[in-house]
Amino acid sequence: MLGIPGSAWHAVDATSDRVGHALALRRLYQSFHEGQPVDSQLRAVVAQSWKRSEEAGLTPEKLPPVVADEDEIAERWQGHPLFPVLPLLRQLLTDATTQSGHMLVITDENGILLWIEGHRRVVEATENMHLVTGADWSEGKAGTNAMGTALAVDHPVQIFSAEHFNKVVHPWQCSGAPIHDPETDEILGAIDLTGHLKTAHPHTLSLVGAAAGMAEVFMQQDLERRVGRIRERHLAGRAGPEQPAAVLGRTGKVLAAVPEGWVTGQVELPKRGSRVSLGEGTDLAELEKIDGESLMLLWGAGKSSPDLPAELTIELLTLSPKLTIGGRSVPLSLRHCELLAVLAANPDGISAERLAIELYGDQGRPESVRAEISRLRSLAGPIIESRPYRIAVEFRADFLEIEPLLAAGRVGDAMDRYRESLLPNSEVGAVVEAGRRVDGMLRSAVIGSEDPVLISRWCGTSSGQSDLEAAELLLTLLAEEDARLPGAIAHAERLRRTESRTTASPWH
Questions:
Q1: pLDDT (tens digit, 9 = 90+) per residue, 410-427?
Q2: Under CATH, domain 18-221 is a member of which superfamily?
């Protein structure tokens, strides 16, 4: 077997002939691609990786694909959990990159290269094999390589010369190690040191593995500091036996609880809303997002309410807007309509401050929002949650159904939903904009259909009654014997006379 005796993960020892070792590996590589058995002469990690690479349909000449441009990668990198760890990695690996002729590569959990730096000549020389940011070096796309294989087997590994599945990488050696999320233990990405095959040394793998471990310790300590700050800022003086609370990670893991032990382990996060069931669906708690944080708060909220409906329907594209809850209709004031429209358009939730601005403008106050929501709850029940505000149950909103219906080619069904413009008397900017979007999409689809039934229905709506283009198109589509033709002619004539006096039509 070619490699270090007794080591599954190191490719070379400190004293072996690098060039001779590379030549021997190339002979095995050639034999493998000629269909000859070579597994017994390779390290198991390499033999298994070659098999996976071949099964993935890769060839010795197929370069890793570049899947993202520089701007997209820069955005991904700056938002990635490993971004804050870069200064530590530089501190640990600078000697290797500046003095030993290596480059540092950092990937995400899928093997996409997020960051590259190091020895200038090495960085430039490897560009031709797509060792560039935005390239996919997962094992399934690039074949056997240290970072991709480290991600595949979840272990630090060194790959030397012709152990790489792609032959363009044969002049190089690399050592890669995965880095894990301290909260979930899931892989966040990998770090890699790449250099010319003549610079290969077993200590490089040890260095990369140690750096990955230090990165995980750094992130664990940072997580503990963040949890401590959240406890101090959000729970101190508020949480206790009468009001239990907890700090959750982004996947629902309990990181701290007050009182200790009231909730432990993993909390199943809801797909919608902020209500969380704890234990047989009898105990409820409520999630609260923290601005600028991936961590969340969980507040104990007592027993589940039998009044919480399973689903509600919001009808706003009508002259008589209403809520339907379990077969019960609730008429809505204009302000309650506006409130529900904004909440429906923000299903993940919206803060009291932002909701106040949306509804009342820059001078809006959260107290006004809370009062309005309290009045709506008194009419409709506990359908709205706070911290942040959101609709608490599954819901349907007619104005949000228009676009998916049109996308599916169901123009007639979209017209069935549309009985009136979205709250035409509203002056709330978000509502006005949503209404214009619905009107514009529907009008375009109706006119494009050239269906006289749909166009006639559109011309009968408050939005379509001033649409001269639609009215004139309808005239060309109606047969002479059609009973609708006289009315359509009269309607078009009225619009022409009106247009001759004014240019106020929104469709011109």
A1: 999 999 999 999 999 999
A2: GAF domain (3.30.450.40)
